[in-house]
Every structure is written in C-alpha cells, then in structure tokens.
Amino acid sequence: MKLLSFYLLIINALGFLLMLVDKWKARKNRWRVRESTLLLIAALGGSVGSLLGMYLFRHKTLHLKFTLGIPLILAGQCLLVVVLMALGTK
C-alpha cells in the first residue's frame, strides 16, 4: 500500500508539472509536450494532478480531448478502485 501511495504521489506530481511545463513552453513558442504524453500520464494514474494543473494553469481547457478525456479517465480510475475494493471484500 505504501508503494502504491508513493507511485500515485509521483505520477500525479508529474501530471501537474507537465501541464505547467507545457503551458510555459506554449507561451515561449518552444517545443511542446506531446498531447499523447499528457494523456498517457493521466491514464497511468496521474489524472488528479493533470486535472488540477489543467485548471490551475488554464491549460488545455479549450480542448475537448482534455476537458472530457481527463475527467473520464479519472472517473474510470475511481470506478476501478470501487470494483477492486468490492472484489476484495468478498
């Protein structure tokens, strides 16, 4: 459980920081973080950090792929946790 908590902390921090870095790069007209990378980090467990970064830095909030995609990823992850917990109590 400690390892899972540590992993989730790191992956969410990464999702949050990647949103910040991509926003900074967008303002400076530099090479950007790929959208697929941002979505992959969210799918690997960093959806909370990515979502927080999105709205805190006002980044990707006009892109349907992100405004729907990341909350759907988060909802799927929450559903997975509920299912796994329910299976674990049987």
Descriptive account of the structure:
- It is a single chain.
- With 90 residues, the protein is mainly alpha-helical.
- It has one domain (2-88).
- The chain has helices at 2-27, 35-56, 64-67, 69-88.
- The longest helix has 26 residues, at 2-27.
- The radius of gyration is 14 Å and the shape is elongated.
- The model has no long low-confidence stretch (mean pLDDT 96).
Compose a concise summary of this entry.
With 90 residues, this protein is mostly helical. It has helices at 2-27, 35-56, 64-67, 69-88.
Question: What is the element layout, followed by pairings?
Answer:
Elements: H1 2-27, H2 35-56, H3 64-67, H4 69-88
Helix pairs in contact: 1-2, 2-4
Please tag this protein with its features.
mainly alpha, 4 helices, 90 residues
Proportion in helices: over 70%
Beta-strand residue fraction = under 5%
- The ordered string of helix (H) and strand (E) elements is HHHH
Distance between the termini: 19 Å
Structure classification = mainly alpha
Weakly predicted, low-confidence segments: none
Shape: elongated
Rg over CA atoms: 14 Å
The DSSP helix count reads 4
Number of strands: 0
Average pLDDT number: 96
Main sheet attributes: strand count, strand direction, barrel closure = none
Q: Tell me the domain tally.
A: 1
